[in-house]
């Protein structure tokens, strides 16, 4: 469904707020600490809802993610650039998050409305882009971070990936699922309003 610039901006603001509220653990938004980080789900949903606005939306969301990390780390009195999370692997979040964006964007491009076929396409797009994101983020941290003890091996990396696989998948799927439900509801309401408007007799 085509979106106006105002609608795109509104969607972007909501997604940015959700990411801030769930990513800023141990910060001024401490009362949201119980919520899992929605960042991965946000980038997939943003790619779907904001397809065509990637030139400004993706860089802004990426900048927000880095800014939040900076605020959280420095807010604890720690050096951002010296923090164990900000190794060479940290910059692999850029292609990792972009893979999620592309997954959502490709789904938006090829989806055929509220049909079973779209559900299947959504599952494939989500799982494929999530797998790329997970491999990039987990793999880069394992192989490039100084905090991972030596010697490193493919076997140890595989074990590490298995340990975190389900928690990351479940969290991302939760937020994408919520987004999917909201999308279906919004689409149905829009159709109902359009139908009601067309059924009214001319005055």
Automatic annotation (TrEMBL):
Q: Where are the transmembrane segments?
A: 88-107, 119-144, 164-185
* Species of provenance: Rhodanobacter caeni
The name on file for this protein is Cobalamin ABC transporter
Q: Would I find Transmembrane among this entry's keywords?
A: yes
Which keywords does UniProt give here? Membrane, Transmembrane, Transmembrane helix
């Amino acid at each position: 469904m085509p979106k106006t610039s105002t609608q795109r901006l509104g969607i972007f603001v909501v997604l940015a707020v959700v990411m801030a509220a769930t990513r800023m653990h141990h910060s001024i938004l401490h009362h949201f600490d119980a919520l899992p980080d929605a960042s991965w789900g946000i980038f997939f949903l943003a790619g779907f809802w904001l397809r065509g606005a990637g030139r400004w939306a993706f860089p802004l969301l990426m900048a927000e993610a880095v800014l939040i990390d900076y605020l959280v780390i420095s807010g604890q009195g720690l050096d951002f650039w010296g923090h164990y999370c900000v190794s060479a692997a940290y910059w692999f979040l850029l292609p990792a998050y972009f893979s999620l964006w592309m997954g959502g964007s490709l789904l938006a491009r090829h989806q055929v409305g509220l049909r079973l076929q779209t559900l299947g396409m959504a599952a494939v797009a989500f799982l494929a882009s999530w797998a790329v994101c997970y491999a990039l983020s987990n793999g880069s941290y394992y192989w490039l971070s100084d905090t991972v003890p030596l010697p490193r091996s493919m076997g140890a990396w595989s074990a590490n990936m298995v340990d975190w696989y389900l928690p990351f998948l479940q969290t991302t799927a939760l937020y994408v699922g919520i987004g999917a439900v909201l999308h279906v509801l919004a689409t149905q309401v829009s159709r109902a309003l359009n139908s009601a408007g067309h059924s009214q007799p001319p005055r």
